[in-house]
Amino acid sequence: MRKILLPLLVVIILLSGSYLFYNFKINKTKKEYYKNLSPKDLDPKSFIELFKERYNKTPINSISMVGDFPENWVKSNDVEYLMSIMNSREKCCGYMNVFSSFISNENAEVGGFAIIFLNSYISNTKINLGLNCNPKTDEESVKKIENWYRNMKDKN
User: Fold this and answer.
1) Beta-bridge partner residues of 132
2) Where are the beta strands (DSSP E) in the chain?
3) Is the same domain home to 12 and 50?
4) Mutual orientation of helices 44-53 and 110-123 as an angle, nearest 10°?
5) Which domain holds residue 127?
6) 3-state secondary structure of 62
7) Are residues 99 and 149 in the same domain?
8) Hey, CA dihedral for 33, 39, 42, 48, is it positive or negative?
């Protein structure tokens, strides 16, 4: 009787241990996959790259984020990149706050986000995209930012 019980007990322990390990591994990857995105986890370049990458890969062409943008989110080393894409009319996903009850069917433009980020840097204000934001490239804003950039370069 002991000869049968001991191997049976070892097999049961091994099977239940491997099942628990497998189950833990699956649940852990699910939690990471569904992690909410936050602007503080990104910088302007990675933000725009993410929104371009996911364009037409989500049913609503919006990316949900939780939380606010940090103070001084756009740094001085981001300005060159943002200036280079400011005129872009390339389509990308729109921004949607997780608390928004409105789903927009509009597309955003890369240049629109660049303009918002540059205006935040120029005026030293915190970025607020509201509950939904699908910005477009605006020629008047582009001219103002180009003038500011030219003046800034002349001072240096």
Assistant:
1) 96
2) 62-65, 91-92, 94-97, 108-109, 132-133
3) no
4) 160
5) 36-154
6) strand
7) yes
8) positive
